[in-house]
Design goal:
With 360 residues, this protein is α+β, with helices and mostly antiparallel strands. The protein has helices at residues 2-18, 80-83, 132-138, 163-176, 185-200, 208-217, 227-250, 257-275, 280-297, 304-318, 326-344, 350-358, and strands spanning 29-43, 47-58, 95-101, 110-119, 143-148, 154-158. It starts with a helix and ends with a helix.
């Protein structure tokens, strides 16, 4: 029953994602879209890459008549004899990854209207290589493309949406604008981008040489905000919460320091995960931490294997495609090995081991 339910849920999840992907038959066509910028736009020397959440999509002018916006009734504004032409159908898209060539100042929450040329999500099918199409699908990106005629783009307004992304960008700009007295400018810039990566999980500013050094030294996992960083944030929250819990208990509140510490620890971990963009590694770490802290709050005895199964189940419900990533197998595989080892080898203090060693 559980296996059948899991297969059904994964099938429905995959169908909902694929239903919003740009069909191959409409690849490399132009559309006029209105949407809101999300995430942190990535700048380079040539272009700015950003995410656009679509609010409306329409066809460009057809036969000297402007097309109408797509609505729930699929009224495209095109004549019925023209509507049957495949390239005139308006696709149902939700999220785009676009490039804006030329200078532009984009930030989360801006509502834009412009014409884009879209392509269906795709990537190289090299065995063992990075599956770019799967990554786009997991991120919910319906199509990729670029902005055509940037001079004609219209900034409609700046909304209050995506406050977390705007806060993350403000932190990034604050770190990058820190004045440094270092004589080596490149070293100073690298240190700033490393701090940005550790703070908000934005690793786009790190050069290939920096990544190569971390690969050679085997410390690349330090830049990927996951279990280590979430655990450190939770430990700080547990310490502060325990002190607060003691004060509340002395004041007469019906709570224990462990319960208050668990709540504060989960809050600290969740806030740090949001600052890091709530990526897949942070999701896994936060789910594992939630299972452990929930058992503390509900005063339930926590056994390792049931907790492990609960964590995998919640992860599969949140994102079924996570099971196809290498990080999922490595993370949960490592935890499974730790549980197996420490379950079969109970912890013994160093004093007891020393006593057993010297016992005649």
């Amino acid at each position: 029953m559980a296996v059948s339910s899991g297969i059904l849920w994964a099938t429905l999840w995959g169908h909902s994602l694929l239903s919003n992907v740009l069909p191959l038959a409409q690849d490399k066509n132009d559309y006029e879209v209105t949407g809101i910028v999300g995430g942190i736009p990535e700048r380079n020397e040539r272009a700015t890459r950003f995410i656009l959440d679509i609010e409306s999509i329409r066809l460009p002018q057809v036969n000297s008549a402007s097309s109408a916006e797509l609505n729930d009734e699929d009224q495209t504004g095109v004549d019925r004899d023209e509507k049957d032409i495949p390239h005139l159908n308006v696709p149902s898209l939700k999220r785009l990854q676009l490039n804006w060539y030329g200078p532009v100042d984009l930030e989360a929450g801006q509502r834009w209207r412009f014409t884009v040329r879209l392509r269906s999500p795709g990537g190289f099918a090299n065995p063992g290589g990075f599956d770019y199409r799967l990554w786009l699908l997991r991120e919910g990106i319906s199509a990729t493309g670029y902005v055509r005629n940037p001079a004609q783009a219209q900034l409609i307004e700046v909304t209050r949406r995506y406050p977390i992304d705007r806060f993350r960008r403000s932190i990034r700009n604050m770190i990058l604008n820190i004045e440094s007295d270092e004589s080596d400018t490149s070293l100073s810039n690298t240190a700033k981008h490393l701090l940005v990566a550790l703070t908000i999980g934005d690793k786009k500013g790190l050069s290939g040489q920096v990544w190569q050094k971390f690969r050679v030294t085997g410390t690349i996992h330090l830049l990927v905000i996951s279990g280590l960083h979430i655990g450190m944030a939770a430990a700080v929250g547990m310490f502060i919460g325990s002190l607060l819990g003691r004060c509340l208990a002395l004041a007469g509140f019906n709570c224990t320091r462990i319960q208050v510490g668990a709540v504060i620890a989960l809050a600290f971990a969740a806030v740090y995960a949001l600052l890091a963009g709530f990526s897949l590694p942070t999701q896994r770490a936060l789910i594992m931490l939630f299972v452990f802290l929930a058992a503390i709050l509900w005063k339930r005895s926590l056994r390792p294997w049931p907790a492990f199964i609960w964590a995998i189940t919640i992860q599969a419900l949140v994102d079924p495609l996570a099971a196809l990533s290498a990080g999922f197998c490595l993370s949960y595989g490592a935890v499974a090995v730790f549980i197996w080892y420490f379950s079969s080898h109970p912890r013994v203090s160093w004093a007891a081991r020393l006593n057993a060693h010297w016992r005649p």
